[in-house]
From TrEMBL:
Residues 14-61 form the F-box domain. It comes from Cephalopterus ornatus. GO terms for biological process: SCF-dependent proteasomal ubiquitin-dependent protein catabolic process. The gene is Fbxl18. This is FXL18 protein. PANTHER family: F-BOX AND LEUCINE-RICH REPEAT PROTEIN 18, F-BOX/TPR REPEAT PROTEIN POF3. PROSITE patterns: FBOX.
Amino acid sequence: QEVVSEESEEESNGVNLMEFSDEILLHILSYVPCTDLVLNVRRTCRKLATLCLDKSLTHTVLLQKDYKVNKDKVKQLMRDIGKEIYQLNMAGCYWLPSSTIDHVTRCKNLVKLNLSGCHVTSLRLSKMLSTLQHLRSLAIDVNPGFDASQLSSECKATLSRVLELKQTLYTPSYGVVPCCTSLEKLLLYFEILDRSREGFMLSGQLMVGESNMPHYQNLRIFYARLAPGYVNQEVVRLYLAVLSDRTPENLHAFLISAPGSFAETEATKNLLDSMARNVCLDALQLPKAWINGSGLLQHLKFNNPFYFSFSRCTLSGGHLIQRVINGGKDLKSLTSLNLSGCVHCLAPESLFRKAEDDIDSSILESLVVSCCNLRHLNLSAAHHHSSESIGNHLCQLLSRLKHLLSLALPVCSITDVAASVEKPPTTPNLVPQTFGRKVRIGIQTYPRNLADQANQKIESSVFWALMGSLRFLETLEIIGSSFSSAMPRNEPAIRNSLPPCVRAQSVGDSEVAAISQLTYLQSLTLAQLPNILTGSGLVNIGLQCQRLRTLSLANLGMMGKVVYMSALMDMLKHCKCLRDLRLEQPYFCAGAQFFQALSHCSSLQRLCIVSRSGTLQSDAVMSFMANCLEVIMCHMFMGESLTVCKNLQQSIVRSFQAERPALNVVIFPLLHEDLTEVIRDVPMRHLDEITLFKSRVAEEPPNLWW
């Protein structure tokens, strides 16, 4: 009776949601997608009808990952609140027909508009921009067939007032850049393929005949990111030619991200010389050939730098300290640093040094002391081996960076020096990762409980201590220094992978378990950890890291067998917030048990599996797609035949496309010669964010685009 009376008292004293203050309700409603607020929630009662149209909720409309939105919803949304929208983000809405853009004309007060990844023709763009007189920030794609001569005078007038432009190029063109005469921020993404679909070679010289040239006199930020390919390099040089003639006086961020070799020319030398004389920078990234062997960094001036990227440069630690860090002066402002692939950046000099030699801890210590406010740090794709000196391990020094939010490290950098030295050469962990005759080894039993795992781990474990000190870390990447994905871009699939670093041989389950201390972790990448024997550490991560949204695992343990499958399935049962999952492992079996475990991830939206000689069960995939209603991307590159892949892909599209407008399905043999042709049709949002493997920590300056 006492229990019943207490329950009835709680019910009578229960708080009705509508009794909360307007401020609290507005905060709650801010987490609801705008389409749901306007089209559904506001129809429930009068109070919510008023609150859902509050300016704080309608000022900025984000549709970029609202995969359930369709043309009709966008039309109704613009009709209801179009005049109240000042910022509209439709980036990556590839599934919406181009006619959807016509409804944006109702947003007369738009100041910021992001249409990257949307289908927009020259004529539609002209009609839309002609009505948006207040627009100051614009992001668009320039596709084959774009014709700037079709832009009306009213459209060009709007573009002349635009201060920020992000332009993704799929064809050689200046796009709308010549019309934007007041530009202060210019972001260029070059995604031009060297060959057309018909097989014809493309050339950047197609742009030479264009009459208008870019205007950069007011430019403050210039950023260019190039996909692999010669044409992209050719086209970006035409954009840079104008800069080399006259460098903007207010330029404070100059960033060019170019893979592979991008040779320096006389024009770029003149540009860099002009920058050294006339500007003071806050952010810098240059192709490696422009920095290697030059004294450029010695002459460039920096004000309050917030971002540096020396990715893949041969910059030595001595030069880094002397020319960039400047003896520790004025670097408290630096929040993001990318040293990925910079193999000598923690050594005093690089002339006679081998990439595998020990680092100089004093250089790293100077870096940590000088850049104490770092939030994003990338040290991947290099051999950063610590010496046996007590207290000077890389992990111990990095633990001082208390503000870190994202971190990328090579596998060999996190191992305890004593543990790696004491390992006998005959240890099973050093079994070559080949596909020949299997060697039978003993499997060590690891505890599944976090407390037991911690008790087994030596208290002085430097990586365990590092994870314990970086409590607020949100993104972590641990990637083998010699790892390369089996599916690089614009090239055939790689058939042979390089063996892991010798220092990395002892990194396995206990190190993975240490990651479970990161309770705020949202994104995790693990690649080429050779000593994974059971994967038990993954279960700990699933239990403790409840905020995990993105998980990428590649080449863990022995290459001839997926030794961590059981632990992975146990882990997935706890990942309720997981949205993106990428798995790359030879001989992966995507069967009924795996997909049954994956079905527990109720928030999953995107799945990518890359597996040489991997297999799948079509019925299990179909059942998974039926159970996980949020999944809108399914990419599988396996060892199955082309017929099996095509049939499964068609079945998924036929069964689920109608109710999931954003559904994107690619199932294809990994080693098929036409893989690159299939890849080029994948929406850039998925290709860049999950399908292609890469390190993403400090890849771009923070808050580069809204």
